């Protein structure tokens, strides 16, 4: 057998022109326990629970492939893990903000048996100014008797509440029809191309994010931080750097420190996560004057898991002497070995040293993140690589790699079609070779394998 009898009809959407990339995104938002996960499961058409909402636990995956009436889309489950009622409104409001920036349609899920809570109202207030279409799902309407409770949710000002029972499947088909109607022809990912690139400044507390933001904007303005999710701006700021306009996302927390007496870490982490997701590229600040910490690693993991482009900025360089510099080099080799491809810049937000050097690093990383390799080029490369280093035997058989295609950009995602399992070591080898050949500096690269049945 060879690649000619491999049936790729199923993957015809994976052309060279990027049609596969543009799948619309539907975000599901709402407070905990309203049944978001059940609704996501319904939409995906499966029974097993998606990862449960566990406080403080970072999820690997928040997006799932779905289809309805022959149309493909992604379902983004925004989660909702909240310790206390006051913080909850704020955090659900932040989910809504991220959704407004990243999704093509938003579904706010409300528990009809409970009615509109103050949290629901706060989120609805945010969503009422959304340019992204918003649908209101009144969940837990298990039978007609609860319909009137659902109708009461008109009060949220988000139009007609669609009654559903995620648990029993009641009304979910109708909701899906409405979702499809609301989705734009052209998903956001393509419509946004050409606008200012979205950048997040992230890193552990006191690493210098606010100082850098001030240095970049050349001003020291404080922004009023609003109470518990009632109002949420200003969240993004447009900044001119290197002759271009950049959109720094989620800067509210950098402008005025959010003082949380309890759960500070938790909020910091939630904020970081939402900033990363709202951005295309993250600048991870690391304090160069101190050892690299576990907290730095956690933020790095969030960026990689989110599949965003990355620039590492070693800040407080003004405090670094020769000894520390040597030590830092060792730490980088040891602790940042999983991102040898990351662009690194040494800066001082305090003195302004080299902050302009962030610009070429951001540009390189985004170019890699956007990069598309043609199927022809990819397979020419693949043949040569396999001829030189075939995959190792498995169970006495040599798995054959038949064909490869780049299924997506942002980040570059490759699919290898094979006759057998490729072990992790060989997948990493392929990624390394891909990087050597096509250069994806500054961007994560995903390597997926489809085994032929
Ligand atoms: P954030 O929590 O990440 O926003 O950190 P801040 O910007 O509030 O900075 C925390 C502290 O580090 C402040 O006292 C800053 O003045 C200081 N700082 C930030 N950047 C630098 C730097 O490049 N050099 C030095 N020496 N101090 C810095």
TrEMBL record:
GO MF term set: GTP binding; ribosome binding
Binding site for GTP 1: 30-37, 77-81, 139-142
PROSITE patterns documented for this protein: G_ENGA
Chain positions recorded as GTP 2 binding sites: 203-210, 250-254, 315-318
Pfam families reported for this sequence: KH_dom-like, MMR_HSR1
GO terms for biological process, alphabetical: ribosome biogenesis
Domain (EngA-type G) ranges: 24-187, 197-370
Keyword Ligase: no
Superkingdom to which the source organism belongs: Bacteria
Keywords (A to Z) from UniProt: GTP-binding, Nucleotide-binding, Repeat, Ribosome biogenesis
InterPro entries per the UniProt record, alphabetical: AAA+_ATPase, G_ENGA, GTP-bd, GTPase_Der, KH_dom-like, KH_dom-like_a/b, P-loop_NTPase, Small_GTP-bd
Subunit structure, as described in the record: Associates with the 50S ribosomal subunit.
PANTHER family associated with the record: GTPASE DER
Function statement: GTPase that plays an essential role in the late steps of ribosome biogenesis.
Similarity remark: Belongs to the TRAFAC class TrmE-Era-EngA-EngB-Septin-like GTPase superfamily. EngA (Der) GTPase family.
Protein name in the entry: GTPase Der
